[in-house]
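Subject line: Sequence and fold of a protein, written as structure tokens
Enclosed: The protein record, placed directly beneath this head.
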Amino acid sequence: MTDNRIYLVGMPGSGKTTLGRQLATHLQLPFIDLDHYIERKEGKSVRKIFEKTGESWFRKTEALALRQATEEYDQAIIATGGGTPCFEGNMDYINRHGISVYIEVPITEILSRMKAEGIAVRPLLAGKTDAQLHQFFSETLSHRKQFYTKATITYASLNPSAHELCQLIDQWLVKK
């Protein structure tokens, strides 16, 4: 496989954490969910950090956590937050330190997943109507796609599989 880090990027609800855990098990590598990493370091939830300090401060904290996790793990699967690649030069940093995979999922599927898990737990989504959520995700994806598409690999699937993703990564490594 690879002796590097694999970073998963994509919209919230795209399956980065779920696929990341599966991939880590499949490859027998540590799994790091960047949001959980931040919560352990800060001693509070991402939602509380957003509420108390605002998005700008959170994005700086997130960039620092990304760099700390990268330094801490030579080999790992790292699921980033949805906005991680879009701030503080993070996408370029990610691409210099491993293989990045954009998990591409249609907005309708993301909204369905988010409703199933509970939207209120996500700071940028709490209190929005269905129409507002759809508009928010459309606008957010429109802005973020320029960063996501810098990923080494784009993986579009409604039913992601760690095995299938490993095959894509192997194909990329052979071409490299």
Summary: The CA atoms of residues 51 and 154 lie 32 Å apart. The beta strands are 5-9, 31-33, 76-79, 98-104, 153-156. The mean pLDDT is 89.
